[in-house]
Amino acid sequence: MRVAEVVGRVLYGHGARYVFGVVGSGNFHVTNALVAAGARFVAAAHEGGAASMADGYARTSGTVGVLSVHQGPGVTNALTGLAEAAKSRTPIVVLAPEATAPRSNFFIDLPALAASVGADFHRVRATHAAQDAGAAYRAAARGATVVLGLPLEVQSAMAEPWSGPVPAVESTPVTAPQVEPLLAALQAARRPVFIAGRGARAAREPLIRLADECGALLAVSAAAKGLFAGNPWNLDVAGGFATPLAAELIGAADLVVAWGSTLNMWTTRHGELIPPSAVVVQVDHDPAAFGVNRPVDLTVAGEVTAVAEAVLGRLGQDVTGSVDGGWRTPELARRIRDNGRWRTVPYQDEGGGAPATIDPRTLSAALDDLLPPDRTVVVDSGNFMGYPSMWLDVPDVAGFCFTQAFQSVGLGLASALGAAVARPDRLTVAAVGDGGFLMSATELVTAVRLALPLLVVIYDDAAYGAEVHHFGPDGHPLETVTFPETDLAAIASGYGCDGVTVRTVDDLGPVRQWLAGRRTRPLVVDAKVSGSRGSWWLEEAFRGH
User: What span, in angstroms and rounded, lies between the C-alpha atoms of 259 and 238?
Assistant: First the structure.
């Protein structure tokens, strides 16, 4: 048995069930070995799309994604998607063939490339192929993007046949978290707020129980949107996407506990959201994350679930019973119910004109009414991104995929394809701008091949809107970032999708009909949105540049 076959069998044995990629000579045998073992190969049109598909699949499924690319340019084509995955700590194994001869035209410094984007690097050796492949998968399962170097000469070498057993993923040694300072802070607080981030995605139930015990309100970073969906004390996303009510209440907190969140500038509006008088606590499994974005008063090292349960255990032993939460009143519950969503915030509709355009808020609200509750919303980067993030509800934390860690335009469509593979039982909605759509439209070929329920909504302002609204007010010329109107629905139809152009709410009739049908052909909605207003969330973003 050759090493390439061993690697494929080992990865399948560890749990790899889907592999995304573009096959060339360097990854032909290892990809076929995965398929022969039982995995399904999803052929992308471009390695950049394949990387984002693996990322979206892993985020939505909660399992390890696998990416297979050709040596040299196959790896570099995937680099932007890998940077997004690594910065998001997405569990992915990248099968990266290596041309190790320095004079080869395919040679790149693969370990340095992986390090440059924050990914881990492993390399397969001929004498330890099974161990090396298994170690890479287990490292990914613990929350890393892992580039697995597969030297070409090693892949073709003979190795001992492998048929198992599969070593278990080593659990992180558990030590009892030191929760006494956090417990004391919770007992002293009258207006506590929990802000849960990416590191708390698996901790919904213990955090809700703890919030109930101490009377805390619940909020999330954008990466954890949906975590507290359905809870009456849920304020939804903190930071730039926060509703006026959420900003008001977080701004009145006397204690803010960040659970698996580093409280970056997006989550805190550059620190302005959290009042200076509030005690700030950060809970994270990685002590290196403490205080990286702002000073904190207390830190607790440990997995979020373990820390929350440890505090709950101590509260249960407290002779005074549960901690008294001062602001969970019927009146506040009513305010959150009636004013806690962007749908309830009044605005002046800015659609109309000739030719007609639709206000992106009106579009998003209408779509939220049309779409089934079981949905996965995947959001690309751009001036538009707040509208789907704020106006489209999701059923749970797995229902929202936010491709913003690297702030790259053009990753949303392919990420949505990976999410659709992970959850074919749900409608996947890819929300993209016209710039990001045109960067990634080639993957519509993949969408048609997959025949999965996919709705692509293009917020089309015929511009790179972020730059228009950032530089336009200062009188800078904008010809480099504005474009003639383009029939994006026709482009989508050319790829084999259904396409519709939307300028008013009345134009959404075909969307309603598509939703009522079989949904086996992707539907692309070219929504001609009004571009007269900038977005406050990108004003925040440019402040961080």
Answer: 13
Residue 21: name the closest of 91, 74, 57 by CA: 74
Strand order in the sheet with 120-123: 40-43, 18-21, 65-68, 92-98, 145-151, 120-123
CA-only gyration radius of the chain, Å:
24
More confident residue, 102 or 281: 281
The verdict on pTM exceeding 0.90 is yes
Q: Is residue 161 classed as helix, strand or coil in its secondary structure?
A: coil
Per-residue tokens: 485 = 């109107």
Neighbours of 286 (CB within 10 A): 13
Cα-based distances in Å from 145 to 94, 319, 420:
8, 46, 21
Strands (E), 232-346: 234-237, 255-259, 279-284, 298-301
Q: SS3 for 450-490, per residue?
A: HCCCEEEEEEECCECHHHHHHHHHHCCCCCCCECCCCCHHH
For the chain, the maximum distance between any two Cα atoms, rounded to a whole number of angstroms, is: 73
Which residues, at least 6 apart from 474, have a Cβ–Cβ distance to it below 8 Å? none
Instruction: Give the sign of the dihedral formed by CA 476, CA 479, CA 481, CA 482.
Output: positive
Residues 6+ apart with CB under 8 A from 485: 355, 462, 528
Answer for the pair 384, 459: CB distance below 8 angstroms, yes or no: yes
Q: Which of 354, 401, 357, 392 is nearest to 373 (CA)?
A: 392
Residue 156 gets which letter from DSSP? T
Distance (Å) of CA 434 to CA 344, 414, 440, 478: 28, 15, 10, 17
Tens of pLDDT, residues 436-446? 999 999 999 99
Closest to 403 in 3D by CA, of 385, 380, 383: 380
Percentage of residues in the chain with pLDDT exceeding 70?
94
- Dump the DSSP string for 385-449: THHHHHHS--SSGGGEEE--SS--TT-HHHHHHHHHHH-TTSEEEEEEEHHHHHHHGGGHHHHHH
For the chain, the 3-state helix, strand and coil shares in percent, each to the nearest 5, are 45, 20, 40
CB atoms within 10 A of CB 33: 23
Sign (positive/negative) of CA torsion 152, 153, 154, 155?
A: positive
Q: Is 298 helix (H, G, I), strand (E, B) or coil?
A: strand
pLDDT per residue over 379-391, tens digit each? 999 999 999 999 9
In angstroms, how far is the first alpha carbon of the chain from the final one?
Answer: 52
* Average pLDDT of span 141-159: 96
Average pLDDT, the chain: 93
